[in-house]
Amino acid sequence: MNRLLRQGAKSLIALGDFPYRLRPGPRILIYHQVGSSLGRQMELPTEAFNDQLEWLQSEGSVVSLEEALARADDPDSHRLYVLTFDDGYRDVYENAYPLLASAGLPFLVYLTTQPIETQSGTTPGAEPLTWAQVEDMAGHGATIGSHTHTHPDLRMVTSEQIEQELGASDELIERRLGITSRHFCYPYGYWSKAADSIVREKYQTATLGAGPAVSSGTDPYLIHRTPVQLSDGHFFFVRKMKTGMVFEETIRRRLSGYQGIAE
After folding, report:
1. Residue 260 is assigned to a structural domain of this protein
2. Predicted confidence (pLDDT) per residue in 199-208, tens digit
3. DSSP single-letter state for residue 74
4. Which of 103, 147, 186, 259 could link 110 by a cystine bridge, Cβ 3.0 to 4.6 Å?
């Protein structure tokens, strides 16, 4: 019943995106879990994820974040797709990674390092990656980025705590993998004024949740992405890739109380 209600609401909200408008710039997708069968909005069945990969490859090219930013003003940049995975769930390695590796596709994994270090996943079916799994992916197409150590809302903590969160994450990635993290993702996709200057000193890029389209004028520390959800199905996934479903994201922001970088 909840799924039917969500689909109905999504259909009504999608009317706000009509008439059809093609969104410019590369599409930077947000994934979390693949094939965990939890039924949460942040998780996709493996078959649905595979179908999305096939559609993306038939419509354009899956590229790295760096290439997407460099080509953001190309006439066909709306056919460039970047795959990002937040948090660091084990099912990404078990279910998504084999498909990505088989197709030779680049992808970016933003790690929340404490769960990986302690193996302290709190939700059955949402266990964290291991460092060995991260190392394997890093050797076969994955770029590894930082997503803090404990995943706090950076709007709600002090500058000292932000330094500690980023420092702990970067130190573990360096020590466990021999990799210097160059990319950062704000927890929950929420920008933080207090974190902004710290993030700019440490990384080359930073990503957020949904927001304005990406162009050559996009601030590399304020890159907005498109969340992929269980309730999208094929129809709404394709529509997000075309229009971004901006109206839906506007409503989601209002409901969450998040006002973006204007805060």
Report:
1. no
2. 999 999 999 9
3. S
4. 147
